[in-house]
Automatic annotation (TrEMBL):
A biological-process GO annotation: carbohydrate metabolic process
InterPro entries: Aldose_1/G6P_1-epimerase, Gal_mutarotase_sf_dom, GH-type_carb-bd
Regions annotated as coiled coil: none
CDD domains named among the record's database cross-references: Aldose_epim
Protein's name according to its UniProt entry: Aldose epimerase
Length: 333
C-alpha cells in the first residue's frame, strides 16, 4: 500500500493531504480542522460533501454543511445562556429566527497542525486547539483546555480520534458533536433513489418551535422505526430531528447503502455519543447530516439527570476521548 502525507492547498486554502492505497482525505487546519474530503480515488467515490472553488468564500463564512465540522459546544442554547455550576455564560445569539446560540466556537477558527506523517501502516495528521486566556473561545468558555483531533488513513478507511483535556483548575463542561455531511449519492453513476440507510436511534426528543427539547419524547413514526433496521431513503421526509442513540451489537453507527454499486458506507461513531441529530435540508437530495452528539440539545438548561442528557463535566487534569471510523464494505446488489 502506497501512502503519503503532505501540506498543500485545497481550492486555495491551506490543507493537509493524506493518501493510503485507494483512499484520499483532506483536512483544512485554518477552517476549524474540518476534514473536508474523504474519497475512494479508484472508484471515484466522494463520501463527504465538498465545496467547489466558487463556493469557498461562502463555505468559510458558514463551514457547517461540508465535510466534518467540529461543534463545541454543539447545537442550540436557549437565549445564548449556558448555566454551569452556579454561573451563567452568555453566548452570542447567532440564530435570530429561534433566538438561540447555534454550534459553538471551534468550527470556523484556525487549529494548529502538530504533525503529519506516513509509513507502511498509513498516513496521519494531528491537530490541536489550545484555549487559554486571550483566545477567542475563552471569552465565552473561560476555561483552560486543549482539544486534540487526529485522523489516520489506511486500508480500513478513515479513523478519527478526538480528546478534550482540562488544563485548568476548575471543572469544565465537555459537550461536543460533529456536523458530518454525507453525500447521497457518493458514486458518480448512482442516483439518490439508489440509497438507503440505517441508524442506531432510540427515542425521539420532542422539540418546541425554537428547536429546543421539551424534555419529553415523541412517538416514532413507522418510517422512523425503519431507520433502526435499514432500507429507508435518507430523503423519506424533511428531517431536523433529535434522537437518543441505542447501540446495536455494542456499536453506534449510521450505515448508508448504495444498491446500484453494491457498497455500504459505515460511519461508526463510538458509544460516548449518547445522542444523534439528523438533518437533510428539507429532504433536498444530494446530502444529509447524521450528527453524533455527546449531549442533548440545550442540555445545561434542561432539568433532567446529567447522565441522561450527556452533560459531561471534566475535573482538572481529566481527559475525555472518543474514536470514530468511516469505511466501506461490499454488499449484494
Amino acid at each position: 500500500m502506497s501512502t503519503k502525507a503532505y501540506e498543500g492547498t485545497y481550492n486555495g486554502e491551506q490543507a493537509i493531504w493524506l493518501q493510503a492505497g485507494r483512499y484520499e482525505a483532506v483536512v483544512l487546519p485554518e477552517v476549524g480542522a474540518n476534514l473536508i474530503a474523504f474519497r475512494d480515488i479508484e472508484k471515484e467515490y466522494r463520501f463527504l460533501r465538498e465545496p467547489a472553488m466558487e463556493e469557498m468564500e461562502a463555505f468559510k463564512e458558514r463551514p457547517i454543511v461540508h465535510g466534518i465540522p467540529v461543534l463545541f459546544p454543539p447545537n442550540r442554547y436557549e437565549d445564548g445562556k449556558f448555566p454551569w455550576k452556579g454561573k451563567v455564560f452568555q453566548f452570542p445569539v447567532n440564530e435570530p429566527k429561534t433566538g438561540n446560540h447555534l454550534h459553538g466556537f471551534v468550527h470556523n477558527i484556525p487549529w494548529a497542525v502538530e504533525n503529519f506523517s506516513a509509513d507502511e501502516q498509513g498516513s496521519r495528521v494531528s491537530l490541536a486547539l489550545r484555549v487559554r486566556e486571550g483566545h477567542s473561545v475563552h471569552e465565552f468558555l473561560p476555561f483552560d483546555f486543549t482539544i486534540r483531533l487526529s485522523y489516520t488513513l489506511n486500508e480500513q478507511g478513515l479513523h478519527q480520534q478526538i480528546s478534550v483535556h482540562n488544563d485548568g483548575q476548575e471543572a469544565m463542561p465537555c459537550l461536543l458533536a460533529f456536523h458530518t455531511t454525507i453525500n447521497a449519492p457518493f458514486a458518480v453513476n448512482s442516483q439518490p433513489s439508489d440509497y438507503s440507510f440505517q441508524m442506531t436511534i432510540g427515542e425521539r426528543w420532542a422539540l418546541n418551535d425554537r428547536m429546543l427539547p421539551t424534555g419529553e419524547y415523541q412517538a416514532l413514526s413507522a418510517d422512523e422505526e425503519k431507520m433502526k433496521v435499514g432500507g429507508l431513503s435518507p430523503f423519506f421526509e424533511g428531517m431536523d430531528n433529535h434522537y437518543t442513540s441505542v447501540p446495536q451489537n455494542s456499536r453506534n453507527f449510521m450505515a448508508l447503502t448504495d444498491a446500484r454499486e453494491g457498497i455500504k458506507l459505515v460511519y461508526d461513531v463510538g458509544t460516548s455519543y449518547k445522542q444523534w441529530m439528523i438533518w437533510n435540508n428539507g429532504k433536498t437530495e444530494g446530502f444529509f447530516c447524521p450528527e453524533p452528539q455527546m449531549n442533548l440539545v440545550n442540555a445545561p438548561n434542561v432539568d433532567l439527570p446529567a447522565d441522561q442528557i450527556g452533560l459531561v463535566s471534566l475535573e482538572p487534569g481529566e481527559v475525555w476521548e472518543e474514536t470514530a471510523r468511516l469505511y466501506t464494505i461490499q454488499v449484494a446488489k
